[in-house]
Amino acid sequence: MPAVLAAAWSLLAAAFLAALVLLPRLRRAGVVSGLFQDLVRYGKTKRGCGQRPGWLRLLQVPKRWFTHFYVVSVLWNGFLLIGLFQTEFLGGSLPSWIQHVHCFLGRDSQSEDTDSEHFSALLVLLLLWLHSCRRLAECLWTSVFSNGVIHIVQYCFGLGYYVAVGSTVLCQVPTNISNGKVVSLSHSVPFGDWFERVSCPHYFAELLIYVSMAIMLGFHNVTWWCVVMYVLFNQALAAVLCHEFYQKNFSSYPKHRKAFIPFVF
Ligand SMILES: NC(=O)c1ccc[n+]([C@@H]2O[C@H](COP(=O)([O-])OP(=O)(O)OC[C@H]3O[C@@H](n4cnc5c(N)ncnc54)[C@H](OP(=O)(O)O)[C@@H]3O)[C@@H](O)[C@H]2O)c1
């Protein structure tokens, strides 16, 4: 098991779990609370927390820059996908610098593996790349971003995130190798399908994507379950903030709707 990666993902999962637990306790005015709220909120939930100090507003970038995350992901994970495909089927090998990083983070090149593990990793990388292409297309042609903002730390984190996810998949195997019409830019109550059950079905779907990848990589893959735990807590935090935003801004918001997981949470 790649210990460095598992430790890093566990740490991230723990950090987001801590943020979820601390959220109700760090709502008072003050520098620490202000910074904490600024780091965990983005887009509409950031706007909902009132006027922020000028120095915090200096550290913000437009939320529409989310698009950059998927540009990076399509390029990086496409590069890894081609490299792994060449290694598996065409007798090629990955560039030596990737192999060195891989040796540091992942399993060494001599360790035992099976053809099915290689195929699983290739398939997961392909799905991750397709997912990123879909998200990039959504950002470019479907999403209608208002003037929401994100913290520069969140932006840098997002840029590194899909590089880290793709690299984690690669390290699971040894390598000897909007066209919709814009109605309004304001946020309204979403409804229909899964939205009738939870405020953020898209975050729940994101979690399911990562769980399905875990199943594909084999239930025993501890590193990937650490990634899943990170996505669970990260998306749970965003869902709680979004749920609170709807409850605060829409007095008729359906009481039975949960935040993230239907019937549970
Ligand atoms: N794996 C990860 O770590 C990770 C992290 C973050 C996000 N994601 C994924 O990235 C995707 C987008 O995430 P997100 O946090 O940006 O989602 P989001 O805040 O719900 O925004 C998605 C789009 O819907 C719009 N929107 C949101 N609520 C709305 C409302 N009530 N009325 C009208 N429009 C609304 C947003 O506009 P505004 O921007 O103007 O609000 C944006 O264009 C999701 O599938 C999420 O699961 C993954």
Number of domains: 1
Task: Give the topology string: H per helix, E per strand.
Answer: HHHHEHHHEHHH
Helical run tally = 10
Q: How many β-strand stretches?
A: 2
Strand order of the largest sheet: 1-2
Mean pLDDT across all residues, rounded? 88
Structural class: mainly alpha
Indicate the radius of gyration in whole angstroms. Answer: 20 Å
**How does the overall form come out from the CA principal axes?**
globular
Question: What percentage of residues falls in helices of 4 or more residues?
Answer: 55-70%
Largest sheet: 2 strands, antiparallel
Taken as a percent bin, the fraction of beta residues is: under 5%
The separation of the N and C termini measures 32 Å
Provide the list of bound ligands, each named once: NADP nicotinamide-adenine-dinucleotide phosphate
Unreliable sequence segments: none
Set out the fold topology.
Layout: H1 3-22, H2 31-40, H3 44-47, H4 54-57, E1 60-62, H5 66-89, H6 96-105, H7 115-142, E2 149-151, H8 152-170, H9 201-217, H10 222-249
Antiparallel strand pairs: 1-2
Helix pairs in contact: 1-10, 5-7, 5-8, 9-10
The protein binds NADP nicotinamide-adenine-dinucleotide phosphate (NAP).
